Here is the input.
Amino acid sequence: MAKRKYKKLDDIEHVLKRPGMYIGSISPHTDEKYLLRDDKMVKEKITYNPGFLKIFDEIVMNSVDESKRAGSKLNIIKIKVSNDAISVWDNGGIPVEMSDEGDEWIPEMIFSNLKAGSNFEDATDKRTGAGLNGVGSTLTNIYSKVFKVVTCDGKKQFTQNFKNNMRIKGIPKIVKAKRNHTEISYKPDLEKFGMADINDTHFKLIQKRIFDIAGCNPKLKIYFNNKVIDIKSFQDYTNYYSDEIIYEENKKKTWSIGIAPSDNGFQQVSFANATETYDGGTHLDYVMNQIISSLREFFKKKHKVDVKPSELKNHMFFFLNSTIINPSFSSQTKEKMITEVKDFGFEYKVTDVFIKKIIKSEIIESILDWVEQKKLADESKLERNLNRGLSKTKVEKLIDAKSRDRWKCSMGIFEGDSAISAFRKYRVPEIMGAFALKGKFTNVSDITTSKLVNNKEVINLMASLGLKLGHEPSLKDLRYGRILLYTDADVDGNSISALLLNFFHRYWPALFDRKMVFKVETPIVSVYNKKAKKKILFYTQTEYDNWCNKQKALANWEIKYKKGLAALVDDEYKTIINTPKMTLITKDDLSKQSLNIWFGKDSNLRKTELLK
Here is the structure.
């Protein structure tokens, strides 16, 4: 058996060999990031080194965290960046004292030990900084060719130099001084990051990070290369991203939120204790869930539609600056916060005023446009699925014509089954087909496509005629050249005819342009002279009344009123089937208006018409 190679690494070797555990990747990474361009944050696709940015963040966040400690007077931070060096100065100060163990000075302990710091009293401390593990600044030292610490606690000033990835540790120099400050200056080991210098991309990323810190900490006066960052609130910061920010913050300003419309799906810029959480986390979910819940309720009540959370979020650009007690992150790179809501230390409730502002904003208009587009897309999908299945639909009620020359064939649509047996008896099978309705046809003026495609009567009628939703009726698809409507000559019959016309008019108006739709008149009175063996059919009351007035006597006539198709006898059926009296139905603006009055959504139009 081959002998395995076992090796023990010291802390420095381990950090340099396994950077992913400590500062993230030190390889070039391509992603979309925000950079400051002409006083606006602009997202650009760039290639950068995450680990290089992390070692800067570890130093600058030391100053930010110190400013939040009880009794701290630190309120100024100055950052300078050149092409090969970075320095961070603040007006705080680290105690220039020996450690409890008495073997090294406190500043030396902090900046040259991976497991040293002031964040380990978890049971008693209520930290609102981002530091947690006591490794951050030492990591920067390890990844630097030169690392210099200068700090003054108001009594003594401490100075110490480190070189060659912290391998060379200079002797601390202690002198008397009164001005409190700390300055960390370092020259990153650029070769380890595959960099020749601090190029423009990394310079702009550092600049952006400084703006983040200024936006999250408006009480701090922050300079970048001798120029003060003029941000007075988190709201000022959000304005670098959008001019349409809806903003609010709680009284203690421990939570600040902003929201703006987004055209590129859900976007977020969030911070926990000034640390940017690129991947969000529990703090972001905590607030977004409140907003989404309120908006879903609004859409259900106001617009009768249930919009999924992810669909609502896709129209939002969300900003969050939160303060969390003793925050926990998913890794040392702190890209996602994982602290549970119950442990936040602060409560935040989104106000009704904020929700009302969102409801009145462009965000809601954008969501409504999307809902309408989705509805149309869903309907188109339903239409496609229906149309694919129509050719396979077997219509049991259909009495089909037999001719292959379908344009010569006519389809009779009958009100009920009463006339079907007579139709079979008297029709010309080659060119005549029939379809019997089950009572009243559906009103398609106020119906969704989903309901329409689930209506068996509609599907059977479409399949019988060769009609497809969303398709112009073509000679190739149509199975009949004429459509004949057979309904009772009463109010109900006229209503059924009108509903069928409304159906054709909404989906296939070209049927009327091609003169394919006819109303077959059915007799309301028949008179029979037994002596002369003569029968006359009347289709209107006026026609019958005029005939009566011309007769000297009616004694020889047998008069029968027809209450519908069911009242007809064989020879009368033969007449309306083989030699029907038909009215061509045409399409114009007046007919469209009439159909809208009687079958549209506005019931007031019908009331007005009835009162005329």
